[in-house]
């Protein structure tokens, strides 16, 4: 791998940072006092809490004593899930935009859209609809880039390190979570711990307080959006997309630059020829359609990709990332520990655990990581639930519950975090690659939206029993990984297409092999007969003579 290939992969992976930034951001924004009061999730009558979060009238006043409104769970679900709903629509739009305008140009447009959505969120009036619209717009960008960024990386990466470079998308997602959590935690601490207005008399319990904290946090999203837009503007177009547009000379130039060699180099010409052949085969069979994803040859890939992203979300990772502060508080930790310390540790584990995945995805393979990860996550979900039922008996059980969550996050980030994104970008043939990747991304954000919307209600109804639900999903994920997923390690995109097509035509091949064996047997029998006939004829001639 040369420096330019690495630069292209990392820059395109910044699309993952936009998604991760929201996950790290929303967890803390939802527990900011001014945000809660401004949008009607809570009210405040002026009373205070001490360091342990208990009601106090003494001098040791640390936090505002907010009262939850009846619409809190619904509004929280709407605000959180509106982003994911936008991502769902963005994934659908990517199937058209990625083919029409190309991967690189569409990612650039998406980054600009993300920036606009961040500005709308940060300037919201006191009505949750405007906030939801802004989050939906940023979601459109993230959903579109969720399809195109991994696809773009896979189309410019060499086969032997494609998994590693494609994993950069997930790595940047986890990095985005850390950056957002770090910045937003600092803002939360400065404005929510011992705030100046704790000692001031209060009139209307629903009156808003200083809104700087959440406006700053939401507006800061525009920074990574602008960085992605600037970097992606200077990246080359996908050579595979260029060939579909009959811009073969440009494709050759991009391949030469990616391989740090000349256009006439054998490696470049061989790769260009393989892409051109794939394009010609695609054209000869007509234009692609969504219906083709469910044809006999491609159907298994579509189902595999959809289920892989389905189970990725039902690991419960985003239930923790979106609402971890509330989960830690439910386990019994102080407000400061639940809001700042433990989420930062969780996000750091999520980030560093992606590095083992980048190693294992090429050394062990995609399927093995899925199998190991599903079993580990099932065990840690059950452990978290079991320990959480004992937290009233002492701090040891609280620590054990949190350690189980940390181990779950490690298990996810090292396995199911990057694998679905890598897999969906490499198993589909060129003609339906973007549409196939869109199916996976669509599944991801559809289930992400469901989880974001229902988890507040589930946590209120079931508390930590919710982890049992996710453990059951991981049992199903193990069965799926063990018996249905097909390995794709080490193959270039054209070889992957051939392998998947051959597997789907397995029965047909068996029949063809049987026919060939039969024909070969008949040929051998005919040869024997001819030999015998020739010998008999010679013997008859000798007798006559």
Number of helical stretches of at least 4 residues: 22
Q: N- to C-terminal separation? A: 80 Å
Query: Biggest β-sheet, characterized?
Result: 3 strands, antiparallel
Strand content: under 5%
E-strand count: 3
Low-pLDDT stretches are 506-514, 540-545
Gyration radius, rounded: 29 Å
Which H/E pattern describes the elements?
A: HHEEEHHHHHHHHHHHHHHHHHHHH
Describe what you observe in this structure.
There is one protein chain. This protein is an all-alpha fold and 545 residues long. The chain is 74% helix and 3% strand. It has helices at 3-29, 33-38, 72-100, 103-122, 128-156, 162-192, 212-219, 222-233, 239-244, 248-258, 266-284, 299-313, 317-331, 335-352, 354-363, 366-388, 395-416, 419-424, 433-462, 466-483, 493-504, 506-544; strands at residues 42-49, 55-56, 63-68. The protein has a 3-stranded antiparallel β-sheet. α3 packs parallel to α5 (128-156), α3 runs antiparallel to α19 and α10 (248-258) crosses α11 (266-284). It is globular and about 100 Å long. The termini are far apart. The model is unreliable at 506-514 and 540-545 (pLDDT under 50).
What is the secondary structure topology, with strand pairs?
Blueprint: H1 3-29, H2 33-38, E1 42-49, E2 55-56, E3 63-68, H3 72-100, H4 103-122, H5 128-156, H6 162-192, H7 212-219, H8 222-233, H9 239-244, H10 248-258, H11 266-284, H12 299-313, H13 317-331, H14 335-352, H15 354-363, H16 366-388, H17 395-416, H18 419-424, H19 433-462, H20 466-483, H21 493-504, H22 506-544
Antiparallel strand pairs: 1-2, 1-3
Helix pairs in contact: 1-5, 1-6, 1-8, 1-13, 3-4, 3-5, 3-19, 4-5, 4-7, 4-8, 5-6, 5-19, 6-14, 6-15, 10-11, 12-19, 13-14, 13-19, 14-17, 15-17, 16-17, 16-20
């Amino acid at each position: 791998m040369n420096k330019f290939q690495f630069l292209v992969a990392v820059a395109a992976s910044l699309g993952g940072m936009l998604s991760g930034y929201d996950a790290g951001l929303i967890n803390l924004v939802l527990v900011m006092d001014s945000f809660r009061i401004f949008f009607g999730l809570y009210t405040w009558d002026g009373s205070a809490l001490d360091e342990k979060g208990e009601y106090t009238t003494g001098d040791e006043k640390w936090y505002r004593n907010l009262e939850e409104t009846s619409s809190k769970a619904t509004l929280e679900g709407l605000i959180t899930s509106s982003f994911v709903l936008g991502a769902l629509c963005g994934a659908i739009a990517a199937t058209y935009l990625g083919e029409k305008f190309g991967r690189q140009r569409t990612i650039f447009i998406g980054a600009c859209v993300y920036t606009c959505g961040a500005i709308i969120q940060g300037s919201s009036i006191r009505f949750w609809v405007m906030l939801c619209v802004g989050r939906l717009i940023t979601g459109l960008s993230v959903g579109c880039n969720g399809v195109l960024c991994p696809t773009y990386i896979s189309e410019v990466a060499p086969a032997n390190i494609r998994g590693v470079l494609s994993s950069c998308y997930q790595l940047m997602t986890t990095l985005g979570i850390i950056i957002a959590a770090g910045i937003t935690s600092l803002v939360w601490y400065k404005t929510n711990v011992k705030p100046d207005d704790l000692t001031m008399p209060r009139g209307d319990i629903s009156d808003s307080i200083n809104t700087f904290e959440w406006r700053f946090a939401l507006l800061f999203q525009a920074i990574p959006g602008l960085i992605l837009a600037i970097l992606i503007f200077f990246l080359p177009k996908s050579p595979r997309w260029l060939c579909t547009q009959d811009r073969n000379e440009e494709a050759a130039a991009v391949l030469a630059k990616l391989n740090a060699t000349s256009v006439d180099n054998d490696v470049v010409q061989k790769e260009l020829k393989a892409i051109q052949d794939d394009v010609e085969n695609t054209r000869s069979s007509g234009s692609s359609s969504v219906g083709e994803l469910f044809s006999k040859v491609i159907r298994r890939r579509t189902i595999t990709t959809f289920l892989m992203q389905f189970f990725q979300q039902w690991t419960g990772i985003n239930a923790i990332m979106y609402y971890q502060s509330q989960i830690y508080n439910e386990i019994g930790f102080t407000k400061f520990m639940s809001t700042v310390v433990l989420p930062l540790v969780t996000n750091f584990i999520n980030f560093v655990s992606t590095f083992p995945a980048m190693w294992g995805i090429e050394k062990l393979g995609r399927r093995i990581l899925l199998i190991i990860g599903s079993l580990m996550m099932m065990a840690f979900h059950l452990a978290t639930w079991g320990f959480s039922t004992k937290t009233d008996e002492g701090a040891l059980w609280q620590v054990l519950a949190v350690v189980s969550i940390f181990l779950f996050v490690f298990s996810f980030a090292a396995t199911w975090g990057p694998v679905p994104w890598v897999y969906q970008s490499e198993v589909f043939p060129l003609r339906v690659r973007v549409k196939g990747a869109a199916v996976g991304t669509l599944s991801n954000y559809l289930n992400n939206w469901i989880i974001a919307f229902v988890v507040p209600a589930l946590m209120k109804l079931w508390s930590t029993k919710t982890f049992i639900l996710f453990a059951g999903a991981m049992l199903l994920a193990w069965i799926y990984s063990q018996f249905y997923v097909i390995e794709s390690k080490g193959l270039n995109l054209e070889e992957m297409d051939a392998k998947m097509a051959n597997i789907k035509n397995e029965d047909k091949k068996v029949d063809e092999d049987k026919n060939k064996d039969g024909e070969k047997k008949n040929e051998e029998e005919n040869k024997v007969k001819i030999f015998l006939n020739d010998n008999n004829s010679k013997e008859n001639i000798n007798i006559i003579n």
